[in-house]
Amino acid sequence: MSDQNVSRFEMLSQSLKPIDPAELHGLLCGLLCTNASLDHDQWLYEAREALADDREFPQTLDELLLLLFDENASHIDNLDEPVTPLLPDDDAPLSERVRALGSWCQGLLYGLGLGESSWNDRLEPESQEFLKDVVDIAQVGFDADEGNEADENAYAEVVEYLRVGLMLIRQDRTPSLPKL
Fold it and tell me: What global pTM score does this model have?
């Protein structure tokens, strides 16, 4: 993960407790995939609904959420620099990263579910298979804090798979985008 993602994850973790920033980011990615006209106001509304504990949001939190929106909206269609799931730093225990990965997938599925009802029928078979995999990944768990090299490699491969799968769904939803 880049240092920018790490610091954003940590800032959001502190600001959103007990809400998982990975899940919130997955929600944003799902919304961006299904709603090409998603704007700041809609995003803030959906984020507040997801945080649904009737608390007042400080201005700094709105600013952080809008920054997250702007960065991801500019990358959602960029094949050279695609969106990367917002996850804990690679130095965090593998169990924490795996848990966040599952939360990101849950958020993605929720965001996709908030989109128009018939969009799933227009997905290519590869994207439909990806969504089935996301459902499985959302339920993933890892009991040990530290994994071996094979576990770390598997984790990295799943993160990359999610990046590519997200691009596939976005491309299915936006036919004018070049195909992978």
Answer: 0.86
